[in-house]
Amino acid sequence: MTKDLQFKFTGKSEVHPSKYQNIWKQHYTMPNGQPKSFEVKHLAETAVILPLTPDNQVVCVSQYRPGPDMVLTELPAGFVDNGETPLQAAQRELLEETGYTGDLQYIGKSFVDAYSTAIRHVFIARDCEKVSEQNLDSSEFIEVKLIQLDTFRKICLNGQITHGESAFIALANLEIKN
Description:
- The protein is an alpha+beta fold.
- The chain folds into two domains: about 10-45, no CATH class; about 45-175, Nucleoside Triphosphate Pyrophosphohydrolase.
- The protein contains three helices and ten strands.
- The chain has helices spanning about 85-100, 150-155, 165-175; strands spanning about 10-15, 20-30, 35-45, 45-50, 55-65, 70-75, 75-80, 100-110, 120-130, 145-150.
- The longest helix has 14 residues, at about 165-175.
- The radius of gyration is 19 Å and the shape is globular.
């Protein structure tokens, strides 16, 4: 016998409006009939790219992140703009943040966390080459770093990266394909 695990949505109210992160209080009735509310972040979809040079270096970016209050290593990533496909966003973000282009392959998607509506689309970009300088927004301060694939794996395993689940999805796909 399968348990009924589904909560019944009964309504929502906006807690914090924002350009990138709206927070809503969403109300439910649990399977036992009791009410329960959750604060849920409503975020735009993002594209995350694992870019590899022909000699298997990972094109990473380092930037300050206010949540952990530190500079972290990241994969190039960004929001999917209105009217844009995840592939177009991946191409644009890779070029803007790093100045690199490559042959992009869609790997899959993941949820950001259990209390968010956001979806991250994961790509691998192979044979990446630098074709231009960075084209950053006025609030972006990003340093591009080329990291050996084995070193990048260690960075991921040590938890010193954002978008960790996307990195693991991309790395697992590399293992399957190689």
